[in-house]
Amino acid sequence: MKNFFKHLKIINSHRFKVMKFCIKAGIPINGFKHDLSKYSKAEFLSSCKYFQGTYSPIVEERKHNFGYSEISIHHTNKNKHHYEYWIDTYKGRLLIKPMPFKYNLEYCLDMISASMTYHKKDFKRDFVLNFFIERESNYLMHPASKEFVIYCLNEYANNNFKNIKAKKLKPIYDEIIKKYDHTYFIETEFEKLKIKNGKE
Fold this sequence. Notes:
Mean pLDDT: 92
Structural class: mainly alpha
Largest sheet: 3 strands, antiparallel
Helix content: 55-70%
Distance between the termini: 51 Å
Strand order of the largest sheet: 1-2-3
Number of helices: 10
């Protein structure tokens, strides 16, 4: 199949980096389990089809599928280090929970690795932080999870992996969590329609 080995090389390279970073950070199990669903038939074949090499196949699939990505749906439902995994729906609202500590940290390491993989030429340590902040409003992430991501990426930008250690970061995560409600509700257009029509 076209792009089979090119895509395989990229996901192997990405997973190896995340695994190495997770071991450094003190969450090795997360590293070993990271992105295993990418090798499944549901994700791998479609990813080969939409492979570009300079950005995720998910982005390319969205371009050809009215914004919808079956790869993304499968991947985020199988991997707890994605904030989408922690989003539920109820009565026309989105319910957003904070990512548990180890998955929140894994998400940060995932971002660092993905940036290294897809932006080899222009990668610098502050690239990941700037990338996230520029797109912050796009992420339907619990505010505690988002604050923790920004904290970790800022630490990485300034000090490399020196302070990206689970033992150091867990107390900081716990303090951040205390500042916010456990579950956030986001009203959707469906909910507005229900209220407007008196069907709440």
